[in-house]
Amino acid sequence: SRIASRPANQKLRWTLHQYIHRPRVVSHRAVVLPMAKGAALRQAVVALHSRQSLANVKAGGELTPDTGEVKEIKEYVVVQRRMWKEQEEPWMVWGTIEESDWPSTSPE
Description:
Blueprint: H1 2-5, E1 11-32, E2 40-57, E3 71-84, E4 87-88, E5 92-97, H2 102-105
Antiparallel strand pairs: 1-2, 2-3, 3-4, 3-5
């Protein structure tokens, strides 16, 4: 993953400056898993449109120059919740995905 590939001593400061649009759920699916009784999985995709910044932080805590520029970002965050033995686990961030359109997903 992108996080695991970063150097262990690298520190970043992420800031959400403003939501341009309210977050919205664009997909919400659930499936019962046949492997065990009471096993299931729920996933939701949340569309986010915001202004945010990401800056590198030096060892002393100060920001690295030329980082931390505020950018307008559109992203799709996937969250999931598992159920095991009929006990729901907390929601967790699975990752992000790219927006797709119908022509790119249909067979040629």
